[in-house]
């Protein structure tokens, strides 16, 4: 500590008085540790070190043949009777907060799987800066477009970290980058795609974590048309920045060649022949034989100068590019009409990721992207024969990536190339428990009370006492808050129904994170006919951030319902999707109409997508765009034998040993699916025939993902 007695006494007086400390004192406190160090308001050295179990939501592996039928084998993997991968690394698509995911990957049982897979060799991330539109997306309904607003947990997770300015952003990134550093193998590398406004900060941050000696380059990707114009007061922008670091000096690097640009050829290959090809000429050496010269003439490889001298031509195909440097101008953004374009504003071109992945990994290596977006890193990794992990906070991002990765599986299958299965994971109830434990320091009774109060406050309901099943009331309706960590069951609804009937209550809202599969519209209708109208509503993850609740922006939406029919087809069955009902509301139509200027706006209200138009005279008209339930379906999938694979999670016990535990649920094996893409917006509403290996009773699960990215499922019993 480089402080004299006078400075120490002054420092103590300032602390006692609650005054700010002069910055030079802060620096002097650490002067013995290092000459230069990074400091910002809120910097903490410790990182999250919890290990939450991962839930397997879905397992996806395209059958290794054209139709879904029992029997057969394919690929280098050991497969089951459907030709689906049984052993070996399964790729991971993980939905949730990447801080908790990274901590759980570092400290949990999956770390061992990562090490068995060869370790994590490469990380590419494109973290958001001022998120805003990153989580919003557009939905096309016919010729109209409606914006799906980002959820508050998506917005708050990053946007509100700017409450203290750049320091909040650095704190958010610092912890995540430290966790990534710990997860990388010793010969691993990281590429960080950085916003131009924070590139200087992030470069210093990365040097602090990875070490100055492991800084490998600052890539300038000139990806845009120059944006300069006369009269502007700053430089026009035409490039992105990518920072490249290794974990140690054991770097794995495969130099890639960049094709020559036309401008480069004009400069270096400064002549052009009669076929329009650039070339460079070279003197003919004295040792060159006449036979060689004649051969070159026959190949049109001899150039005659103005003075009649002979020279040898060197074309582009003889100089196939230069080893890549730190300025790239040969890769453009994905064209808006590209087959792989997903609609994400921040989507990066596959060519960019292909170059990075080839440069810093080898076939069979494991790579990761913890800000998944539309899934470009994982898609390219799969095509290049790499294993992958990718994560995102946004529900719709995960859904977009899932469709894209199924498309990659289909593409590779059609060309006879191998591919790996992937699983969709999340932290489920354990993530919710972590938030509540963090708020209450793990005190169970306090947690239960705070949890109910938290949900009621977000729902704008008042707490009531003297009831066994009901917790609150709102606008003439009573409210039940479902459990934190298990689904709302039919038994729970019957208990609520009995209490309501005894007290002559007729309307109740039941709020839950998950609902038992047996809660059908028919069951809810039966309770209504008996005198109690029950409405089921999902609790959004947003309620765990008090800022969302304070703003009144945590939205609860009604549970959707689907219906499907079983058709017997020869020796198999087919599933037909026959109905889908939702009451989702994103907009308050009255507020929209009052605030509208002349023009049009597309809104979502009570399960309908509506176009509102206002003319210059203030006359408002509305047109319903969702003509039938088909318009709401973006994706649907089937597991023909849902009870065949129990969901087993791995948990570390107090002794650090890994234990396997059945959650009581089953793994959804995605055996058939149909979904919309930008290239093909049509859907199949009847599956291909499926044959069971033996007669019996089976549970079929049908899963629908609507155009908002929300899952709805139903189980159907089949006798075959």
From TrEMBL:
Keywords: Methyltransferase, S-adenosyl-L-methionine, Transferase. The keyword Transferase applies. Pfam families: N6_N4_Mtase. It comes from the Bacteria. It is an enzyme of class 2 (transferase). Residues 121-400 form the DNA methylase N-4/N-6 domain. It catalyses: a 2'-deoxyadenosine in DNA + S-adenosyl-L-methionine = an N(6)-methyl-2'-deoxyadenosine in DNA + S-adenosyl-L-homocysteine + H(+). Its EC number is 2.1.1.72. This is site-specific DNA-methyltransferase (adenine-specific).
């Amino acid at each position: 500590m480089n402080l004299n007695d006078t400075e120490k006494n002054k420092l103590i007086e300032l602390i006692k008085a609650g005054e700010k400390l002069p910055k030079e004192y802060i620096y002097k406190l650490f002067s013995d540790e290092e000459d230069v160090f990074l400091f910002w308001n809120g910097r903490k050295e410790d990182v999250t070190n919890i290990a939450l179990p991962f839930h397997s939501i879905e397992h996806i592996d395209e059958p290794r043949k054209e139709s879904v039928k029992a029997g057969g084998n394919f690929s280098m993997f050991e497969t089951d009777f459907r030709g689906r991968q049984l052993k070996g690394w399964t790729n991971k698509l993980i939905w949730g907060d990447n801080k908790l995911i990274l901590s759980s990957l570092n400290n949990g049982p999956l770390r061992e799987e990562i090490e068995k897979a060869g370790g994590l060799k490469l990380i590419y991330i494109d973290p958001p800066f001022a998120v805003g539109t990153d989580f919003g997306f557009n939905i096309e309904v016919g010729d109209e477009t409606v914006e799906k607003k980002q959820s508050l947990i998506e917005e708050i997770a990053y946007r509100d970290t700017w409450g203290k300015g750049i320091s909040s952003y650095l704190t958010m990134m610092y912890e995540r980058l430290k966790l990534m550093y710990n997860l990388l193998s010793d010969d691993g590398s990281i590429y960080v795609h950085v916003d131009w406004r924070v590139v200087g900060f992030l470069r210093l941050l990365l040097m602090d974590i990875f070490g100055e000696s492991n800084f490998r380059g600052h890539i300038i990707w000139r990806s845009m048309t120059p944006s300069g114009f006369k009269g502007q007061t700053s430089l026009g922008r035409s490039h992105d920045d990518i920072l490249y670091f290794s974990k140690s000096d054991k770097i794995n690097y495969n130099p890639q060649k960049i094709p020559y640009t036309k401008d480069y050829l004009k400069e270096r290959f400064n002549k052009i022949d009669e076929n329009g090809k650039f070339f460079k000429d070279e003197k003919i050496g004295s040792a060159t034989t006449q036979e060689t010269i004649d051969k070159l003439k026959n190949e049109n490889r001899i150039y005659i100068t103005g003075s009649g001298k002979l020279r040898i031509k060197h074309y582009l195909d003889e100089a196939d590019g230069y080893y890549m440097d730190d300025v790239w101008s040969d890769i453009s953004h994905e064209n808006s009409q590209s087959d792989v374009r997903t609609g994400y504003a921040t989507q990066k071109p596959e060519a960019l990721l292909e170059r990075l992945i080839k440069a810093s990994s080898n076939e069979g290596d494991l790579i990761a992207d913890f800000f998944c977006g539309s899934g470009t890193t994982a898609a390219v990794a799969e095509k290049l024969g790499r294993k992958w992990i990718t994560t995102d906070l946004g529900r719709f991002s995960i859904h977009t990536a899932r469709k894209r990765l199924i498309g990659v599986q289909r593409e590779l299958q059609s060309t006879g190339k191998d591919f790996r299965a992937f699983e969709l994971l999340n932290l489920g109830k354990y993530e919710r428990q972590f938030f509540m434990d963090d708020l209450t320091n793990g005190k169970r009774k306090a947690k239960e009370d705070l949890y109910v109060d938290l949900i009621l406050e977000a729902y704008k309901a008042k707490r009531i006492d003297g009831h066994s099943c009901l917790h609150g009331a709102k606008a003439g309706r009573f409210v039940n808050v479902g459990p934190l960590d298990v689904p709302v069951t039919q038994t729970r609804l019957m208990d609520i129904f009995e209490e309501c009937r005894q007290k002559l209550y007729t309307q109740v809202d039941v709020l839950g994170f998950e609902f038992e599969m047996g809660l059908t519209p028919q069951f809810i209708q039966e309770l209504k006919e008996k005198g109690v109208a029950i409405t089921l509503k999902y609790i959004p993850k947003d309620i765990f951030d008090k800022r969302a609740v304070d703003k009144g922006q945590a939205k609860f939406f009604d549970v959707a319902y689907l219906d499907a029919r079983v058709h017997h087809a020869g020796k198999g069955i087919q599933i037909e999707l026959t109905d889908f009902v939702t009451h989702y509301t994103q907009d308050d139509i009255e507020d929209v109409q009052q605030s509208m200027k002349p023009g049009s706006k597309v809104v979502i209200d009570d399960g309908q997508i509506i176009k509102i138009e206002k003319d210059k005279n203030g006359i408002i008209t509305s047109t319903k765009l969702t003509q039938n339930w088909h318009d709401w379906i973006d994706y649907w999938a089937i597991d023909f034998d849902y009870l065949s694979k129990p969901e087993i999670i791995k948990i570390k016990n107090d002794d650090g040993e890994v234990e396997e535990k059945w959650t009581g649920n089953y793994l959804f094996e995605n055996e058939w699916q149909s979904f919309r893409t930008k290239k093909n917006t049509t859907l199949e509403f009847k599956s291909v025939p499926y044959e069971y290996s033996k007669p019996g009773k089976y549970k079929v699960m049908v899963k629908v993902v609507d155009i908002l990215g929300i899952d709805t499922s139903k189980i159907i019993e089949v006798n075959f």
